[in-house]
Amino acid sequence: MDLEKLLWPFLLTLFAGLATGIGSTIAFFAKRTNKAFLSTSLGFSAGVMLYISFMEIIPTAGDSLMEVAGDERGWLLTVIAFFGGIALIAIIDHLIPDAENPHEVKAVEDQEDSPEGKRRLMRMGLFTALAIGIHNFPEGLATFIAALNDLQIGVAIAIAVAIHNIPEGIAISVPVYYATGSRKKAFLLSFLSGLAEPVGAVVGYLILLPFMSETTFGILFASVAGIMVFISLDELLPAAKRYGKHHHAIYGLIAGMAVMAVSLLLLD
Fold first, then answer.
1. What angle do CA 46, 52, 56 make, to 5 degrees?
2. Do 168 and 20 contact (CB within 8 A), yes or no?
3. Which of 5-19, 80-94, 162-176 has the lowest mean pLDDT?
4. What 8-state DSSP symbol labels residue 106?
5. Taking the CB of residue 69, how many other CB atoms lie within 10 A of it?
6. What is the average pLDDT value for the chain, to the nearest integer?
7. C-alpha to C-alpha distance for 57 and 221, rounded to whole angstroms
8. Is it the case that residue 50 has pLDDT exceeding 90?
9. d(CA 53, CA 57)
10. How much is the pLDDT for 74?
11. Residue 59 and residue 4: Cα distance in Å, rounded?
12. What are phi and psi of 16, to 5 degrees?
């Protein structure tokens, strides 16, 4: 495949992954977390992902697979691949211990000053970074494959994933920063966990490259929709609600859907 065609999907995936650094910056310089902003942003991200998944990605995957396998079998493959994507990310999520789960909301003002508290915070930060790194592998592949098929959709998903990664950067940086007092260590750990996203994209794509065909691409694209829907329902919306701003999350969700609907109509 043309390297130039791969470059933009890779750069978009890199951008999405490194948005954890924005969360780190917030953790270092903000005295309190702007929960209303994060709640609305996470809702917006979920709206973008859900709208794109159901209105663009699944139909595109279905068209591709029906062209190869016929209407009935092609649509069946699309449905199976969609739920396969959900199963993949759900299994990864299930394997991560609850205490280190990256979905656990952290705020800038969360800290402990005792030596034991600092040790606990450091352990929390390290395991959260590992958990987020594992999570970012399929997210990176999903962003990459979406951008490879349609750059416009890839840009929207990359922005949504980037928003989603901001509170994850906070979740890593807050405990590490307060445990060590080092902005450098906290940012580096956050940065490395974000790199798992483009690494996941490249590794996943290289593994799948020998098997790439119209059928494989259709199955992958439907799986991407499943991953995006699971991330939205299991991570983004619950996290937005846990920030304590339920209506902000819903307003953000509707705004995300509306923005994507208008942009896709205008750019079609």
1. 165
2. yes
3. 162-176
4. -
5. 17
6. 81
7. 7
8. yes
9. 5
10. 95
11. 26
12. -65, -45
